[in-house]
Design brief:
This protein is α/β, with parallel strands linked by helices. The chain is built from eight helices and twelve strands.
Length: 233
């Protein structure tokens, strides 16, 4: 049976420690997920191209091609633009977390891993995805066309810009509430959900990345309060 035709959710687990990939794949298969594994970044990219996983669990500290560069290359693959990217790392330094979000990470988890907690988080993610009732519509606001169907943003006559999933959802949410201030806490709950343990600076990193791609004028910062999409552009 082709994996792309399977009704099971597809997950790719990438870690240079085979004990970790075996442990995670065992626990995920028990939950009826279809799982592939890789022990290095290059293999992960090749498997992902064919497998087209909905979720990639990716270790940061790997030899040769580390998780950050692997994630960067994965995000450049058109078929994986909407793939959920969850990083694992044994490192607690802030720059590792920021680097992960810079390449489009959706979530971040520090080792040692508790399999039940990880499975619960993944279950919650797929449950939220299934419960999304928002139609795939486009928003035309200011000089932007924000297309939810293919996660692109078109600015005037320029070529469409494809945004990573969380960056797009953040922009889409703010644009839907143009000229209304949204607090960081609200954005964390609505975009990342209550089951994902990320901090307020995660919002700041994603706003910065969106601004780099569409320009600085659309999302306004209200110091100490949050962010607002301005129709004035």
């Amino acid at each position: 049976m082709s994996s792309k035709n399977s009704t099971l959710h597809r997950i790719l687990v990438v870690d240079d420690n085979t004990d970790i990939t075996e442990m995670l794949s065992y626990n995920l298969r028990k939950e009826n997920y279809e799982v592939r594994t890789a022990n290095d970044g290059k293999s992960a990219i090749e498997i992902a191209k064919e497998f087209e996983p909905e979720l990639i669990i990716l270790d940061i500290m790997m030899p040769e091609l580390d998780g950050i560069e692997t994630g960067r290359q994965l995000r450049e693959i058109e078929a994986l633009k909407k793939t959920y990217l969850l990083y694992l790392t044994a490192r607690s330094e802030e720059y590792s977390e920021v680097a992960a979000f810079d390449v489009g990470a959706d979530d971040y988890l520090t080792k040692p891993i508790k399999p039940r907690a990880l499975v619960s988080r993944i279950n919650a993610f797929f449950r939220r995805e299934a419960e999304r009732s928002e139609p795939d519509t486009a928003i035309e606001i200011a000089d932007l066309l924000i297309n939810r169907e293919n996660y692109t943003v078109t600015k005037g006559e320029e070529s469409p810009i494809v945004l990573p999933k969380k960056e797009f959802e953040l922009l889409y949410y703010l644009a839907q509430r143009s000229n209304k201030v949204c607090s960081r806490d609200e954005l964390l709950q609505k975009i990342w959900g209550t089951d994902v343990f990320v901090v307020e600076r995660t919002v700041d990193v994603h706003v910065r990345k969106v601004r780099e791609k569409i320009g600085n004028d659309y999302i306004k910062t209200l110091k100490g309060v949050g962010y607002m999409f301005s129709e004035e552009g």
